[in-house]
Amino acid sequence: MNYFDKIKKAPIKKDAIILGIETSCDETAVAIIKNGREILANQVISSMTEHVRFGGVVPEIASRAHTTAILTAVKDALEEAKLTKDDIDAIAVTQGAGLLGALLVGVSFAKALAFAWEKPLVPVSHIRGHIAASYLADLTLEPPFITILASGGHTAIVEVKDYYTTDVLGSTIDDAVGEAFDKVARVLGLQYPGGPNIERLAKEGENNVKLPKMLANNYQGGEYDFSYSGLKTAVINYVHNKTEKGENLNKADIAKSFQCSAIDVLVEKAIKAVKEKGYKTVTLSGGVGANGYLRERIIEEGEKLNLKLVIPQKKYCTDNAAMIGAEGYLQYLKGNFADLSLNAKAVVSLR
Ligand code: KG4
Ligand code: ZN
Asked: Around Cβ 87, how many Cβ atoms within 10 Å?
């Protein structure tokens, strides 16, 4: 019997331990998750420092770093969980979205592992993974809820209707919010990664630079949509004009003002969704969810409405494999297994 026929015949267990692999960007991450909720191991080997001098992630460097790190990450995860391969019920891997070369390392490795260990191979959407991080943060969390999905590649207000059904109420029509943080950071001369560095600088500044609050009102009926390219351009123009005139730039004030503009609209639209659709729970997902100002603002607004707020630890907002294990468990329960022809996808859709 070939690999896939054997896997298809294996029983699906509700009590299951999933090994998750994530290599979509510059983190080689492996985690072991029990029943979709309990983190038995969480290993992250980042190549971030190798990208700093280039001002952003260099795909080829990231792919090579995954190739070097992935076996160590798997071994360390098994050791951390005090488990062996026999305890693992399935291998979940990020299929996309992300950098293609980087994803291919994880997908190829996961295929080899699944074949060698004779385990089901579960392809996982990175975006759904970010959302599933909320299940790790609050063991009582159940859909339905609203999540603010805010990362380097995505910005959306998402209705999570049940464990498998999501509806995107609105999303960005151009740049993602994390991308805007990274680009503005570069304009301000801050190092990669831009998001955390803007947040740090913003702590010393005031919200006194007038910047547009993009799509705070309707855009062609897309009342939950976002746009970040205009905000980014406004910052670039502001910096350019001041520099031309030889005026002093207060970078901390620019960082603070940008952060407020970028984040306030996310919170505003999430709260609007909660009110209009009658949800009682809001969660944060994606790397920008690690932003302290976003975390404070959603708590402030959520408390006014008595909402349940699920805010994952910062390390589970940014890329990690625990979220892939959590989503992998859900897909495992459905028997969504791949055969060994599984390929990586640069783009995946949430809609
Ligand atoms: O989810 P993530 O780790 O990777 C993607 O799936 O894109 O998100 C990365 C993004 C980057 O743009 C990064 O600058 C941003 O999240 N980010 C932050 C913070 N930490 C990470 N943005 C604002 N404040 C932060 N503290
Ligand atoms: Zn991500």
From this structure: 14
